[in-house]
Design goal:
Chains A, B: One of its GO terms (cellular component) is cytosol. Chains A, B: Belongs to the Fur family. Chains A, B: Keywords: Cytoplasm, DNA-binding, Iron, Metal-binding, Repressor, Transcription, Transcription regulation, Zinc. Chains A, B: GO terms for molecular function: DNA-binding transcription factor activity; transcription cis-regulatory region binding; zinc ion binding. Chains A, B: This is Ferric uptake regulation protein. 2 copies of one chain form a homodimer. With 144 residues, the first copy, chain A, is α+β, with helices and mostly antiparallel strands. Chain A has one domain: Orthogonal Bundle (Arc Repressor Mutant, subunit A). The first copy, chain A, is built from 5 helices and 6 strands; from the N terminus they run H-H-E-H-H-E-E-E-E-H-E. In chain A, the strands form 2 sheets. Chain A has a 3-stranded antiparallel beta sheet with strand order 1-3-2. In chain A, helix 3 crosses helix 4. The longest helix of chain A is centred in the middle third of the chain and has 13 residues. Chain A is globular. Chains A and B meet through helix 4, helix 5 and strand 6 of A and helix 4, helix 5 and strand 6 of B. Strand 6 of chain A pairs antiparallel with strand 6 of chain B. The structure holds a DNA duplex (25 and 25 nucleotides).
Chain lengths: 144, 144
DNA sequence: CTTTATGCAAATGCTTTGCAGTGCC
DNA sequence: GGCACTGCAAAGCATTTGCATAAAG
């Protein structure tokens, strides 16, 4: 219960109601809903009876991301080159992983592959670069 | 010279000055500048003395993307979770490739790796999905 | 001629900011 | 009490759309 407060303090952030609530929402998100948009967090707050402004949700999530508490992703909505893409946030639970998004259901599956990770490092190196970060998203469709 | 007109007709688009000009700009982009934002294309047009509206640039690029003539990417600006990301367009020259973006210089290097491509397919399959598309961007830093 | 494209300006959607008021430590 | 945090409304960007005009086939 006081767990969240610790995390916040560690991040150098004052323990306030919006921050604690948002952290709880992210922590309690079911496996199927680990990737929330700012709007979804906002709605969850209202459903929980808390009156937090959308601006605050964005501010808090951005701070959390800067503190490494959460990760921000930018999944593109549809293929078809519709530049529409909103951010989704997910609690950073230690190890890194990539994502697979179903183009039909919107479902998100996480995965981690050592082979790919290593190849990426090698490829960057071959070009004289050091790999700092990467973003890999597979757009998939359920098999029939 | 009439090459562009053929490509446009093939795509089912009327041959108009804005479309031809934009196609030329993309084709003549140097190796270091193959990835242009709508704004950059717009500026290039003005520099070439053509008065094309930015809205038209967007419309044309979107049509080109839909026709498969160009590919639209969404490189994120800075890491640090600043959701800032604008689209860049690149001429689709046949084979698929991924990108490596230098976080300092903004330079973009293209690459293709059969191992990664294959692993992606396998990973999707293992989860009962069919791989439709993917987006892979490596964020790198020049080695010292 | 008829259809499709263009330009401009206004509208959008998501995200950030300015500022006065509020609540942590 | 002071300074960080919040809420609200307004500002910002990149991109899209409505509509009257202009050009293509």
């Amino acid at each position: 219960m006081a767990e969240e407060n610790q995390e916040l303090r560690r991040a150098g952030l004052k323990v306030t109601l919006p921050r604690v609530k948002i952290l709880q929402i992210l922590e309690s998100a079911g496996v199927e809903q680990q990737h929330l948009s700012a709007e979804e967090v906002y709605d969850a707050l209202r459903d929980a009876g808390e009156n937090v402004g959308l601006a605050t949700v964005y501010r808090v999530l951005t701070q959390f991301a800067a503190a490494g508490l959460v990760t921000r992703h930018n999944f593109e909505a549809g293929r078809d080159g519709s530049g529409t893409s909103h951010s989704v946030f997910e609690l950073a639970r230690g190890e890194h992983h990539d994502h697979m998004v179903c183009m039909e259901s919107g479902e998100v599956v996480e995965f981690h592959d050592a082979v790919i990770e290593e190849r990426q490092r090698q490829i960057a190196e071959e070009q004289g670069y050091e790999l700092v970060d990467h973003s890999l998203v597979l757009y998939v469709r359920k098999k029939s």
